[in-house]
Amino acid sequence: MNAGIEPVEADPPPTQGGGRVVLFLRRGLVALAILVLIEAVLIATLFGYLTANQQTLAHEAIPALIRAQDSARLVRQLESEARALLAVRQSFAVEARLLQVRVLTDQLRHAVGEAQATLASAGDTRALTGKLDAWEALLGSIDQIQRRQIAVGEHLHDQMAAVGALQQRPAQIPAATRALALQALGQLSAAFASDDPAEIRTLEARYLLDLPGLRATLPPGALREHFVVWSASFADRVESLRLEQHLEQANRRLVLLESLVTDLEAIAQTLSQRAQHEANAAEQRLLWASVVLGSVILLGIALTVLGLRMVDRKILRRLLRLQRAMQARVQGEARRIPLDGDDEIADMGASFLHFVEAVERREHSLQQNIEHLNRARASLVEAEKLASLGSLIAVLAHELNTPIGCAVTTSSTAADEARGLQRKISEGEAIGRKPMLQTLEKIASCARLAETSLERTAELLAGFRDIAASQRDKKRSRFNPAELVARVGQTMQPSISFAGHQLKLDLIDPGAVDGYAGALNQVLMQFVDNAIKHAFGQHGPGSITLRCLPDDEDNFLIEVADNGDGIADTVRPRLFEPFFTTTLNKGTGMGLYAAHTLVRGRCGGEIEVQSQLGQGTVFRLRLPRNAPDNGADNALAGSDPRAA
Amino acid sequence: MDLLIRALSWLCWVGLASAAWAADYRPALVFDTAAVESSGFNREALDGAIKFQRLHELHVANHFLPGKTRGESELAALIETALSQGANHVIAIGFPFESPIAVAARRHPKVHFTLIDGTSDPARIQNIVFREEEGAFLMGALAAMASTRGRIGFVGGMDIPLIRRFACGYAQGARHVAPGIETLWAMNGATLEAFFDAAKAAKLATMQIERGADVVFHAAGAAGLGVIETAAARGVKAIGVDSNQNGLAPGHVLSSMLKRMDVAVYLALREGRDGLWQPGVRQLGLRETGIDWALDRHNVGLIEHAWHERLVDLHFAIRAEQIRVFRYTGATPCPHLDLTQPTQ
User: Fold this and answer.
1) In this complex, which of A198, A258, A263 lies closest to B319 when CB atoms are compared?
2) Burial class of residue A450, CB neighbours in 10 A (0-12, 13-18, 19+)
3) Are the beta carbons of A255 and B304 separated by less than 8 Å?
4) Which residue from B minimizes the CA distance to A135?
């Protein structure tokens, strides 16, 4: 049998590619990683750059602006304090005010000093500190002038009071000098009243002209001394006016503070502009950074898309195509395996193709082998059939040999006897009645024997024909097995009753089936007949039960059970062999063989035998609800009686 | 400043009290230019009129000379126009009116005429003049204090005694502070146009600066702008005149000598309304706050405290007549500056 299998010639496996896809993917991944890294670094750098510049704005420009504005506010406060200072005419009030102003000035100087670090230019700070110095100088001078003014003013006030008192009571003045003294007093009070320093100086000159006369005429004492002392009052008055003018000018000079405010405001504006500029620059930078970032991201996206397209074109689509082609090949379509390129995918395709071709070659050779085997089996079956037929014919010949031989012997004996008799008669030999009768008796006996033997032969041949005939019955029909069983029972009832047995029917309708009712009918009758003939050898009359019941959705069961002797273990294996019989005179040995052949062959069922000595036997037929559509071709070949 | 405000409010009070008398008071101001805004001098005069008008709710007619020609006949016609419109007190602003107003005064004896900043026929006309020399003196002292090179400059407008008076007082003040200081002087021309030719004034200032002057005082009216611009461009200091010009080039204008035209105009209007008008010559100086100098935020940083104190003392000394400032009239030569030949 092995001679038919062709050896599969082994193709050399495809050579390995250069690992190009792996290399491509690795390179792509590395490039992607580098791209991501570059973008991350770029973003971090931009972020740092932006925040660093933002810090300049937040930490320098804006606080400086706030300081400048604070300083301007401080200066305004200072201005109002200074104006109040210039208005006061009492020394303690001056001190209190001055203290306040100095505190404010210190604060301002501090503020300016702080601002210095961030101011627009060194020139601005110089101007500011210069003005602050001028302001402090002004303060010092105001302080001085105020004090002097107050001192002079108090002094003048006393003298005015004294002069006024004297003018009120001129009687205190000696009469001789009264006129002159009153004239001098008039000059004094005119000087006190005048705001014109030139006029006061004129009055002074006149007073000084009168003074020698007064000194000469007034008696020594307080009054004379008073007039001498009062001569200084003109100068005091002028000094008072001078101080007043200074104060007035100091008041004008308070514009210094206004200019300080202007400067600070200018600085604030510069800083504000700078802050604005910074903000604008930051905005510009932000814009720029956004553009750069956007471009980088777009570039990244573009490169990624490009990479993906490449991967798609170079790998994924080819993989997909390969996979589909492979699937199609597996499903049997004759599709070409794409083998373009010289990378792993092409290698995979080549390997698969190699594998598939090898498999196909093997399959082809297997198919050939199977066909070979099938042919061998068919010839075996045929041989078996022939062998079976041969054995059947051998058995038949052997079986027929005895009666035919017997018939031949007896008929030749009878012929011999008849020929002897005939010769005797023709020769005129006297034949006695008795010998004559004896010879005739012999011939008759021989004829009877030959008849019996030939009857036997006919019987054997009829049985054999029955088997063949039933095998040929191919009428397929739809029938109810329960009804069929009942009919068989009805048919067999007389025979069963005649033998003294009892028939029991146990029917559960399994529904209509599709099969060979005639064959089944014959089989059942055969089993019932078999039971009548063989089951109750030693036991008295018993019962035969016919059962019909459903088995599963494909099969139904029919049982022929008896409560007879049972079948001996020695007999059972041979139960369905052809021409096997336990009772030579009762049967041909073909009944169960025929039944078995029909059940297994035509009906496509199985027979199961359950038997126990002394208890009875059950023949169980498991039959398909839908009988197979095989012919009788395999009826003999397919059945192996020993298998049952 | 304070004094001025007090004076003005006092004047205002008096004005209100005598309002009943002034029912038919119809004053008119005449200006020798229509470009009042470009000249601080005229602007101040107009301000005085506006202040008066606001305080007393009395209409003051203003007549401006149209066109560029400033001949005497045009000025006379302007006065006649004011008179024809019913003015009974004509106040002429500036010396160019000196002879036209004299003619008009002779022709209209019942009308009151006041000439401000000029002198004409004291028998018929009320002349209000300024003691410019006092202000110029202070500016000279200031220039001397500010000068580091020992040379200061003066650019006058029209070469007339009035302008020379500035130069003389300026030189005197400078010498008072720094006896060795040299004053360069120049005049911008011999006609009225000299008060308007800024380019020429700028040229003169440039020459003085190139010769070492680091403070230049101008008394050139509108032409003085050229001086200020030049000084600012050259990095030296200028001193303005008439009105406060500190703001024209902040940081470069040391100060401005103020001729308080507003005070003079207000004074003339008030006296006219109160029936106190009388012919003659009235001088307004430091004492009357008719003359002053500007101190504001633009120049306060330029003037050191000590300078300021010195100026106040000088101011007071002039008030007290302890310092007598020479008033140049042309009769006697300036003792402090050789005015015969401009310094080239």
Assistant:
1) A198
2) buried
3) no
4) B305
* Position A233, amino acid: S
DSSP code per residue over A400-411: HHHHHHHHHHHH
Residues 162-201 of A with CB under 8 A from B: 196-198, 200-201
Beta strand extents in A279-410 (DSSP E only)? none
For residue range A513-541, list pLDDT tens digits in order. 888 888 888 888 888 888 888 888 776 78
* B315 interfacial to chain A (CB closer than 8 Å): yes
Quick one: which of A292, A212, A258 has its CA closest to A80? A258
Which residues are CB-contacts of A308 (< 8 A; sequence separation ≥ 6)? none
Window B:284-303, CB contacts with A under 8 Å: 287, 295-298, 300-301
Q: Residue A255: its chain B contacts at CB < 8 A?
A: 295-297, 300
- Nearest chain A Cα to B294, which residue? A252
Task: Give the per-residue SS3 of chain B.
Answer: CHHHHHHHHHHHHHHHHCHHHHCCCCEEEEECCCCHHHCHHHHHHHHHHHHHHHHHCCCCEEEECCCCCCCHHHHHHHHHHHHHCCCCEEEEECHHHHHHHHHHHHHCCCCEEEEECCCCCCCCEEEEEECHHHHHHHHHHHHHHHCCCCEEEEEEEECCHHHHHHHHHHHHHHHHHCCCCEEEEEEEECCHHHHCCHHHHHHHHHHHHHCCCCEEEEECHHHHHHHHHHHHHHCCEEEEEECCCHHHCCCCEEEEEEECHHHHHHHHHHHHHCCCCCCEEEEECCCCCCEEECCCCCCCCCCCHHHHHHHHHHHHHHHCCCCCCCCCCCCCCCCCCCCCCCCC
Torsion sign, CA atoms B328, B330, B333, B336: positive
Identify which of B171, B144, B141 has the alpha carbon closest to the alpha carbon of residue B156: B171
Best CA proximity match to A256, nearest among A432, A127, A406, A413: A127
Check B321 against A249: CB less than 8 A apart.
no
CA–CA gap between residue A147 and residue A240 (Å, rounded): 11
A243-275 confidence digits (pLDDT tens): 988 988 888 888 888 888 877 777 777 777 877
Please state whether the predicted TM-score (pTM) of the whole model is above 0.80.
Answer: no
B79 vs B15: which has the higher pLDDT: B79
**DSSP labels for A385-401?**
HHHHHHHHHHHHHHHHH
Taking alpha carbons only, the member of A559, A567, A545, A555 closest to residue A616 is A567
For residue B186, what pLDDT is reported?
94
Is A475 touching B (CB cutoff 8 A)? no
Contact flag A138-B305 (C-beta cutoff 8 Å): yes
A246/B1 CB distance under 8 A:
no
Distance CA B319, CA A94 (A): 28
Residues of B in contact with A137 (CB under 8 A): 305-306
What is the distance in angstroms between the Cα of A235 and the nearest Cα belonging to chain B? 11
**More confidently predicted of B15 and B29:** B29
Of A134, A246, A259, the CB nearest to B312: A246
CA atoms of A168 and A175, how far apart (whole Å): 15
Residue contact B301–A245, C-beta within 8 A: no
Q: Inform me whether the C-beta atom of residue B110 falls under 8 Å from chain A C-beta atoms.
A: no
Element (H, E) at A608: strand A606-612
**pLDDT, tens digit (0-9, with 9 covering 90-100), for B68-114:** 777 888 899 999 999 999 899 999 998 889 999 999 999 999 999 99
Please report the number of interchain residue pairs, chain A to chain B, with beta-carbon separation below 8 angstroms: 73
Confidence class for position A464, pLDDT limits 50, 70, 90: low
Q: Sign (positive/negative) of CA torsion A512, A517, A519, A524? A: positive
pLDDT tens digits along A402-421: 778 888 888 888 888 888 88
